Amino acid sequence: xxxxxxxxxxxxxxxxxxxxxxxxxxTLDERxxxxxxxxxxxxxxxxxxxxxxxxxxxxxxxxGPATVFPQAVGLGATWNDxxxxxxxxxxxxxxxxxxxxxDRIGLNVWAPTVNLLRHPLxxxxxxxxxxxxxxxxxxxxxxxxxxxxxxxxxxxxxxxxKHWLAHNNETGRDVTSSSVxxxxxxxxxxKAFEDAVRAGAVAGxxxxxxxxxxxxxxxxxxxAEYLRAWTDRSLVVCSDAGAPSNLVDSEHYFxxxxxATAAALLxxxxxxxxxxxxxxxxxxxxxxxxxxxxxxxxxxDTAVRRLLELRFSLGxxxxxxxxxxxxxxxxxxxxxxxxxxxxxxxxxxLKNDGILPLDPGxxxxxxxxxxxxxxxxxxxxxxxxxxxxxxxxxxxxxxGADRVVFAEGADLVRLKCADGWLRIPEAAGxxxxxxxxxxxxxxxxxxxxxxLPPLTCGDTPSELALIDWGNGxxxxxxxxxxxxxxxxxxxxxxxxxxxxGWIVQETFRLEAAEGHDGGHRLLHIGTGGYVSVAADGxxxxxxxxxxxxxxxxxxxxxxxxxxxxxxxxxxxxxDTVVVVVGNDPHINGRETEDRPTLDLPAQQERLWRAxxxxxxxxxxxxxxxxxxxxxxxxxTLPALLWTAHGGQAAGxxxxxxxSGDVSPAGRLPQTWYTxxxxxxxxxxxxxxxxxxxxxxxxxxxxxxxxxxxxxxSFTHSALTAARDGDLLRVAWTVTNTGTTDADEVAQLxxxxxxPSVVRPVRQLAGHRRLHLAAGASERxxxxxxxxxxxxxxxxxxxxxxxxxxxxxxxxxxxxxxRLIAVVDIDGEPAxxxxxxxxxxxxxxxxxxxxxxxxxxxxxxxxxxxxxxxANELLYRRCDFAAGxxxxxxxxxxxxxxxxxxxxxxxxxPVAPTGGPYxxxxxxxxxxxxxxxxxRITLRGTVRLARIAFSGAGA
Length: 954
What we know:
Layout: H1 15-25, H2 28-33, E1 38-39, E2 50-51, E3 54-55, H3 72-78, H4 81-101, E4 108-113, H5 133-148, E5 158-164, E6 177-178, H6 182-198, E7 204-207, E8 211-212, E9 215-216, H7 222-225, E10 236-237, H8 243-249, H9 257-267, H10 280-291, H11 297-313, H12 333-345, E11 348-352, E12 366-369, H13 391-399, E13 404-407, E14 411-417, E15 420-423, E16 456-458, E17 464-468, E18 474-477, E19 483-486, E20 492-496, E21 508-512, E22 519-524, E23 529-534, E24 537-540, E25 554-561, H14 563-572, E26 576-582, H15 602-614, E27 618-623, H16 631-636, E28 639-643, H17 650-658, H18 693-696, E29 714-724, E30 727-736, E31 742-752, E32 763-772, E33 777-785, E34 791-793, E35 798-800, E36 804-813, E37 816-825, H19 835-838, E38 840-841, E39 847-849, E40 851-855, E41 862-866, E42 872-879, E43 884-892, E44 895-901, E45 904-910, E46 920-928, E47 931-940, E48 943-951
Helix pairs in contact: 1-11, 4-5, 4-12, 5-6, 8-9, 9-10, 12-17, 13-17, 14-15
């Protein structure tokens, strides 16, 4: 008689029944253990260990060699959904292939990042796709579909979207609150997540470290209210690393970890990423919450059920049925070609006065100069390079090494102190290896090398390449290419292949030393300690040493050669110059660190100016995930290009664009501003009120959203737009009128002609990247739901498409509109605010000044409080009908609420309440009728939740 399999092992049963069976077989302790990122094996049932979280933002990250694709913002710059889907598929296959050899690699991938690039100084802008919600969601849908695969039941990998919600600052990221008004929430921040989730290729989300409207994202009611309402699929919510502990330790939102853990689980967090691989801390907190009655078994089972569905979908229990079980595609020719194609498509031609493309067959000399000219940079979420192409490599290969002149442009210096010259001892027999080449579950724990001798001081100096990455942040590199770095033992060595690590150990500052003319102390930024020379070598003071600064060695810097001089010589010796500038992704803009400015670092500014002074045929190639305020360069130089760090094929791709082998067709995924003065505060999340992004910005940018030039020319013609029920059908023709086969990115925008509230200047409604041979045409047909041109009506608490005229705009960028058609949408106008019937939620304002939205209660609700003495909340067109007799405010704190309606002003005192969450009603007479604007000013520590009005006769 054949033994029947346990029901949870039976592939003929639906997942739900199998999960029911497995759940009832698990003990409570076994279920609780599954709620940690590193879930242990259950040997008695034959369950393997499981972990959530494999980084895969633009390739398999952290786990050693992998195909490295362009950074996420570079993929966004392609505006090519189908390309990005293929990239996602390749990454998913490499995850599977690597897991076959290394079971540390998980199939639950934490990618992509769909936070919108609202502010160009956000340190993690490299991880997102665009400042626009529609473009972001389109690219995210494509990437997740590739990662997921197309099997109806089993998933190649299980993507988790990061980071829920309104997360655009690294400064104080675990304690700052994003004040997000209802319109911005629904029209902007939620949209990128919503479309990706509804597309059905997302397995879950990761909440962000920050708070939104005063409440930590890890206990947000929006997870249930929106995220899980968008799909019938059981989504898994994975906490960010250490965030559950932050609820108590840094945010002080709860008094105990048991309360915090229970609140997170009840809000919808299923998997706790905390305390590394040690699950005992978090499981102990869950058990403590159960003992205190803060949770029950059903709460545990709800989360475990979601995690088990994820595991079933990944084929864990059905290896013979899993179509992806034997995936072995890794570093294939197809993947290499795809990495090159993606890098090519990410290049944006910002300006071209005819100098490009360069003709490789003309026998001309090219100077390749700049701090990134011979660099292939990786970021925190990269894998280890198998193949590597720098701009210098690519240009030498395409134009011929004998016709390429190179100068990096770093300053060559020597450092001298009282004990002699700083020198690097020879390191006989030391093997070179890339940081993290062996893979690490937590690369933040990787230590620096100690197998090399520390620096010393003596009679013979060592020349060092000094680079100022901006804001006074310096790196030093020895002639063999190794950077000065500090290991755990505190000694300074030439040991790092590149700056990197969670805490970068390769960056320094020079601080003027009082009483030493031209002398400087050398501060090691990673430890905060000063460099000193000791008998056994050069080292950094240990953290906390009180005399670190006074005991620091004073160094004098001797410049052997200025970088701009070397660049000028190379430029003068060439027919054309390509200056490659940009950033190192581990310095001055990265996770944990926002950028200080839009300005190009001064050293790199000097380099392009020196090159241009020596040779006016100077092309600037910017390699960075971030926009720069290149106002002078744009006005001075004949050509500018931009690309994010392009991965393993970056250099080859740039050379192919420069040579005309590929006509550039990347488009900017975010606005490039002219200066820092154009930017709002980094923590101002109100894109409507502060007129942020191309949607609301009223100035003239340096380069607009969607901008990008080509080596060919295109016309747009024959635009038609018509309503078809709840749809808008739009079509137009694009023709390549040039002599070069090339891609064009056709862009569709919508603008409300005469809106009753502030609406976008224009808003992306669709796009299509298409390849056209010279002289060829293609008709583009796009369909959009009528609801997509609507907005959140705060006056009535609903999504609405306001009747009136809408311009349907087709063109080549948000500022290059070629065609306009007008569509009239009929319907009933929304009308004024029915305040007598609905009252007013304080957060439902139309405009505000000097206020922020805060949490009404720990579990749900919003209130508004003042952050400046001069503050105001404006509610337009309030309908008081025949008249109001009184106003009742619901508020906490102490102070007053001042209401002005028409010519009537009343002050409603708020007596001290029992704390910020103790809301009480206070009433004052208000004599106002008809439709008028209502203005509210808050005094003291008042937190205003709501206002109700009674009729004059009440």
